[in-house]
Structures are given as structure tokens and as C-alpha cells.
Amino acid sequence: MGDLMRLDLDGPVAVLRFLCPERRNPYSLAFVEALVANLRLAEKDEAIRAVVMTGGEHFSSGGDLIGFRAEIAKGARTTLQMVDMVHEGGRAAYQFRKPLIAAVCGIAYGAGLSLALSADIIVAAEDARLCEVFARIGGCPDTGSSWLLQQRAGAGIARMLVLTGREIDGRAARELRIVEECVPPGEVENRAIEIAREVAAHPAFGIQTAKRVMRAAAGCSYLQALEIERDSQTVLLCAHDFPEAMTAFQEKRPPRFKDC
After folding, report:
1. Which residues have C-beta within 8 Å of that of residue 223, sequence separation ≥ 6?
2. Is the whole-model pTM more than 0.90?
3. Number of domains the chain contains
4. Dist. CA 209–CA 8, nearest whole Å
5. Out of 71, 124, 132, 169, which residue is the most buried by the measure of CB atoms under 10 Å away?
6. Is 136 among the domain residues?
7. Residues 121 and 233 both lie in one domain
8. 215 in the same domain as 184
9. Are 107 and 208 in a shared domain?
10. Domain that holds residue 186
């Protein structure tokens, strides 16, 4: 797995590097296995407060179609198992409890785009090439992109990109609200790390709870969101960081958070 990706520690921020940019980091079964393993390591390491995913010159070209052919040839049951295994990568990224930021340069196609979309924040290069490529190869969206893209860009834009198989660059992706920031190619990773450091500076328990609340509220009504917020905020108000923040405010001093 070490030849596919590496987890580099940079203080409270970890950088998950995909190591095959010359092959455009294909989303193979081995890639998924390495992705899941590294995200689990990052989740267990309490020193890591935020993670940046980057593929270097290319984020990911998507599914390893040539590599998948042997499994597809075995029939529908084996193919279903293979697709579900591929989806484990998206599940691990989307359910990652710490802030996850995608730094996207070059190609982000198919499952590679889905992986980027599963992050909390996407920083893309101006000339990055994003594509829901499935229609071009006679397939339909997978790896969560049918849901993730609609969450970010809305149903109409998502349908247009899926049904046309149209490639867009980072600038267009920013205009369509698919990515949060768009910067020159040489600035993508540094900008993603800057954002990760900004997030990591806050109390970890609060940030992880805020992420969970935002994810839960995205799929419910306003009144249900109030209930989710009430339950989560009650826990935080009684935890160690929020009381310290209130005391520090009263004493006119910087707060001394226990988990920072």
C-alpha cells in the first residue's frame, strides 16, 4: 500500500498523498484499500486534527477499468461485490470524523471526482479538469457522485454534468459551487493546508461535532435541524472547551483549550 499513498504529518495537519500521478492515480481496488487504511490511521491519531488529500499533478482519473475487467468477467454477483468494495473508499472519506480537505490538480474524473466531493472543502486548480465521465463509457454515476454532486451544485447542474459527461475546469467548478476555492495550480496544496491549519486551530471536539451536525442537518427539515443542534450543543456547553471559552471571555484573556 505504501507505493500508492503516504500519510505525511505536518503538525496538527496530515497530508494524504496519492503517489502515482504519472498514472493519474487510478481508483483501483488496491487504491481503495490504501485509502481506507490511511484514513483509519489518521482518525485514530489524536495529534491529527485535519487531513488534506492530494494527488500531486493529478488527483485521480477514476475507476481502474482495465483492472476491473477480470472481476466483471466473473459475472453479476462478483461485479456487485467489486462495486461495493470500490464504494468503501467513498464511505471512509465521507464518514471520516475529522475535517477533510481535497486539493485537486489535473484530472479528477469519475470515482476520483466523487472522492474529492466527499471532502468537507475542495480547493481546485484553475486548470483542473473535473468530469462525471460515466455517460461517456455507458455507465451511470457511482461512488456516491449522484448524491454528492446534487448536494453541492443542485439537481439541475448535477443532471447536466452527469448526462452530458461534460468536462469543466476549476474556474467553472467554482462558479457552479462544486468547489469552494479555485487558485493557480502551484498554490493548491499550500492553500488547502492553510485552510486545514485554520480549522485545526479550533477545539477538536467542537469541530468534529460541528461537522457531524452539518452533515446530519443537510438531509432534514429546519425543525429537525434545531433538534440536532440542541442535542449536540447541550453536550458541548457542558464539555471542557466551551466553559473555558466563557471564562476566558469574562477574564479578558485567550482561552486555554485542553485539546488544542
Report:
1. none
2. yes
3. 2
4. 25
5. 124
6. yes
7. no
8. no
9. no
10. 5-200
